[in-house]
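Feature request disguised as a bug: please show the residue count (330) next to Arsenite efflux ATP-binding protein ArsA in the output. Example input:
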Amino acid sequence: MLLELAARSRVLFVGGKGGVGKTAVASAVALAQAQAGRRVLVVSTDPAHNLGHLWRRDVGDRVTGLAERLDGLEIDPARTTDAHLAVVGATVRRLMPEHLAGEVDKHLELARDAPGTHEAAILERIADTVESGPAQYDLIVFDTAPSGHTARLMTLPETMGAWTDGLLRRQHRAERFGAALRRLEDDPAGLMGREDPRAARDHEIRRILLHRRRRFEHLREVLLDAGRTTFVIVLAAERLPVLETIELHAQLSRAGVQVGALVVNKRSPADAGELLAARRVQEQAYLAEVRAALPRVPIVQVPLLPGDIVGPDALERFAHELGRDVDTPA
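Example output, currently without the count:
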């Protein structure tokens, strides 16, 4: 069921509490889709990356081949923020008077560690990937950061879009005021036939803001399109992951993002001794709690496996488990 869901999607987000196996699920689904013949990119947005460890190779902040038809990428928040601020700085310096360049540099340096800067930079990378990725890949799988960070990230396109709209309104008012001021200061006849640098700057600012707004509108459109995008929450059948799952589902629903499935990882066996049998009984109670809270979301259960899930062979076996034991709502 989960693999069929992925097969119908162009973008797949995998989220949940830290330590429940998000990277393993994201990688196994990506590998299964690549083996089915699709071109796949798996992207880690979690600052505590595990993609390279799981695949036993250096991945980092560049596209790296993981298997046939499968690439990987670990977004580096610090490098992404530096690149983001460099682009913003170059644009602002180009548009501001030269004597203000020092002030621009000081402002950007303060912004580097300001709340939300890393998130905004990562959101830009996600928006870029969602916009340009489909030309090269059939499926993009995002292995996201733990629940709270991801929920906020899902609401950011709308927030950033509203913020950009506000800037556009202010810029429009400033542009009109500037045009009126120039008509008072200058001889209108003297502007005929030559370029007004202030008007050119205003147009450039507007062009940049409109481009930014279109990018966030596109990302939000993709996030809300259940025909193209699927969100999967991974959890363990334990108290805190269950509570976080219910809360994350509520936050995503409020943002308009539909959850396609839950993956309950590391289910204890009933026939491997008293300890694990007792844990399974306890897990059943937590599973019942999830079913009661989210009755319409299909649940995939994956058994506790004897070894670590590391390397392509282990991921292939894990993907096989993801295709079994589905609890589909009536």
